[in-house]
Design goal:
78 residues; single chain; alpha+beta
Length: 78
């Protein structure tokens, strides 16, 4: 599935770590973007993988504003 165009400076993400591959899954009705990542959630590996994945898909640098230790995160453009 193709990653959606992002026009907002702030996005909500739901991450599922420990998957078979890094991929965009869907956008929920509330606008939350669902993503699967290969990285494990330990030691911030999934957070780093998420930022790298988003950079690759959007050509924009992002920073995590909240949700460092949960699957739901709020990110802001740098």
């Amino acid at each position: 599935m193709q990653f959606p165009h992002i026009s907002s400076d702030i996005i909500q993400i739901k991450v599922t770590p420990g998957s078979k591959k890094d991929e965009y899954i869907d956008t929920l009705p509330d606008g939350t973007i669902k993503i699967r990542l290969k990285a494990s959630p330990t030691d911030g590996k999934a957070n780093i993988a998420l930022l790298n994945f988003l950079k690759k898909e959007t050509n924009i640098e992002w920073e995590i504003k909240s949700g460092f230790t949960t699957s739901r995160k709020v990110l802001k453009k740098k």
